[in-house]
Amino acid sequence: MIRRLLKSLLSLVSPQQCACCGCRLGIDESAICTICDINMPRRQDHLNPMDNSTARLFWGIAKIERCASWIDYESHTSCAKAIYALKYGNRPDIGFALGQLVADEMQPTGFFDGIDCIVPLPLHRKRQRERGYNQSREFALGLCSVLHIDLCDDAVERLRNTKSQASLVHGERSTNIKDAFGVVRPEALNGKHVLMVDDIVTTGATLSECIKAINKDTDARVSILTIGRAKH
Ligand SMILES: [Zn+2]
């Protein structure tokens, strides 16, 4: 009650805008307005989590169980604007709000059943310092807050600060990212079913490399969830 009151007072003083369309948010909305939420280009991967076109990016490369991307990601769209703000605009709240939204939507379908912990794709320390936060961790925190599943962000590390994958073509991406991750606390993952989360998946090279490290050093089962899937 008090939180709601504070939120409505705060929205009077400093109205919050939708990260997609810029409209003024209502007090029950966080980061993204209801209309933009409804219009998100959902993929419905989670309804067939073992076999969908996102899961197929990993077949024969990394051992995974379930896999889903929430939306199709295309540049110059209103949802790309929100993802850009999450990554480069000092807006960690967008990641948290999307995490809550996705958790609410996918939970009833059983997508998260049996998941023991959520692992955000780690950023290299230097890049995280520059950005001030890890956008995948913020998304994971939003998921955790709804699902009451533990966050595990200290078991896997990014060992090398690689070039941005976006600047590279397909073949270069897997070379650039090779051996970039290491499991520093295997005991935190052993025997568990881990949900690895990231913002946007394109070729799957980065997530594959991280999951290969987990597959090598632990007996954890790994599933994947990303906010978006970009065409490549
Ligand atoms: Zn909007």
Task: Describe the model.
The chain has a 5-stranded parallel sheet with strand order 1-7-6-2-3. A two-stranded antiparallel ribbon has the order 4-5. The mean pLDDT is 92. It starts with a helix and ends with a strand. It contains 8 helices and 7 strands. The chain has one domain (42-230): 3-Layer(aba) Sandwich (Rossmann fold). The longest helix is centred in the middle third of the chain and has 15 residues, at 92-106. By secondary structure, the chain is of the alpha/beta class. It binds zinc ion.
Class based on secondary structure composition and strand pairing: alpha/beta
Total strand count, please? 7
Summarize model confidence as the mean pLDDT.
92
When the domains are counted, the total is 1
Number of helices: 8
Task: Indicate the overall shape.
Answer: globular
Bound molecules: zinc ion
Q: What is the CATH topology?
A: Rossmann fold
Order of helices and strands: HHEHHEHHEEHEEHE
What proportion strand? 15-25%
CA gyration radius, whole angstroms:
17 Å
Spans of at least 5 consecutive residues with low confidence: none
- The CATH class turns out to be Alpha Beta
Q: What is the name of the CATH architecture?
A: 3-Layer(aba) Sandwich
- Share of helix among residues? 25-40%
Strand order of the largest sheet: 1-7-6-2-3
Taking the sheet with the most strands, its summary is: 5 strands, parallel
Oligomeric state of the chains present here: single chain
Distance between the termini: 46 Å
